[in-house]
Amino acid sequence: MLETTLETVKIEERGCPGGMKLGVITLDAPKSLHALTLDMIRAIDGALVRWAGDDAIACVVLQSSTDKAFCAGGDVRSLRAAVTEQPGVVPNPQALAFFAEEYRLDHRIHTYVKPLLVWGGGIVMGGGLGLMAGASHRVVTESTRIAMPEISIGLFPDVGGSWFLGRMPGRSGLFLGLTGAPMNAADALFAGLGDYFLRQEERAMLLDALTLAPWQASAPANHQQLNRLLRGFSAPVSMLPVSEVRANFDAIAALTQAPTLPEVVAAIAAYDGDSAWLQKAAHSLAKGAPSSAALVWEMRVRTRHLSLAQVFQQELIVAVQCCAHADFSEGVRALLIDKDNAPQWQPASLAEVSETYLNEYFAAPWRQHPLADLSI
Q1: Percentages helix, strand, coil for the chain, rounded to the nearest 5?
Q2: CA-based angle 45:47:51, to the nearest 5?
């Protein structure tokens, strides 16, 4: 049965043996690399809620319609337009709706009881990683390219980034958040963002196998069933690319070992080694918004001991405040609209980011938190 609730999201239920079903959600906005809109978020979340209460749904698959990208992030162009149309309104109604519902969806994925497989082939950035990071079964392929490049548009690694970056090996999550450095499949496996490495060409065969699997009425049993299937399809380790995060792990540790953000930023900027990946990362940090770098550091401190729900609650406050500050609109303009790649950041340097200014991002602009009902 195919139920199309939105042109850009296809919701499908496929029959399996024994009367069980496979739920399949396919992002289908190839021109934007499946960037998430509020309507897409609502369609995905609606399907997950419905299937959570349907005993016939044994397993859920979240994928895109193309091999080029799973999801390149959120529709920040529309968010910028909404913010510029209502300057000074905090929180901006459209930004609040988008982020609140996106984070609610991401939290649902993290806590979903049934097995949920995300096919993370191609580009997975920002909001796409929010969809993928919390899934019970995350597939990466030879084409996987993951990044959290929010520093380039005056945002911060949200969608649970404060949760999963802090749980990466060593201080690699801090480095990736500050620089937006890209990760491949091997990096994802090393950093804990991926579980299985499959060839991109195996996707259709895997879906066929999922519809033929002997699913049961038990979620734990179905988790094990999916594990067995994915192990059977896994590509040889010899096919994995070199993990840049792993290869440069000691260098990352040295570059980020200082106790203050200015010292860490200075160390990364001064990198003069042979790694092209580290060189590019240093360049991205140097061009990024100083306010974003400060937020990466501050969120790492403030969320260290928070629960998953508390992390999303904190991120929502910071996200809507980012939309109220100049760097977000300027970053999106420079990177995605005018494409001059010459943002005029305010503040222009890390030294100008005062404690008073930074605290503005953590001021809740409401009496009742929109995500107050989240638990776990």
Answers
A1: 50, 15, 35
A2: 120
C-alpha span between 7 and 4 (Å, rounded): 7
Q: Rounded to whole angstroms, how far apart are CA atoms 25 and 11?
A: 5
Token pair in block for residue 279: 């060189």
Sign of CA dihedral 295, 300, 302, 307: positive
Nearest Cα neighbor of 368 from 91, 2, 131, 84 is 91
The backbone torsions φ and ψ at residue 137, rounded to the nearest 5 degrees and listed phi first, read -135, 115
Model confidence at 1, pLDDT cuts 50, 70, 90, reads low
The whole-angstrom distance between residue 293's C-alpha and the CA centroid of its chain comes to 18
Alpha carbon of 365 to those of 93, 107, 207, 375: distances in Å? 12, 22, 45, 21
The whole-angstrom separation of Cα 22 and Cα 19 is 10
Cβ-Cβ contacts under 8 Å for 168 (sequence gap 6 or more): 176, 191, 192
Residues forming a β-bridge with 64:
27
Q: pLDDT digit string (tens) for 178-192? A: 999 999 999 999 999
Q: Which of 362, 357, 359, 356 is nearest to 345 (CA)?
A: 357
Catalytically active residues are 74, 127, 150, 158
- Triad 160, 165, 170: Cα angle to 5°: 160
Give the pairing type, strands 137-140 and 116-120. parallel
**Exposed, middle or buried by CB within 10 Å (0-12, 13-18, 19+), for 246?**
middle
What span, in angstroms and rounded, lies between the C-alpha atoms of 177 and 330? Answer: 20
Instruction: Kindly state the helix (H) or strand (E) to which residue 145 belongs, with its residue range.
Output: strand 145-147
- Amino acid 148 reads M
**pLDDT single digits (tens) 191-238:** 999 999 999 999 999 999 999 999 999 999 999 999 999 999 999 999
φ and ψ at 356, to 5 degrees? Answer: -65, -45
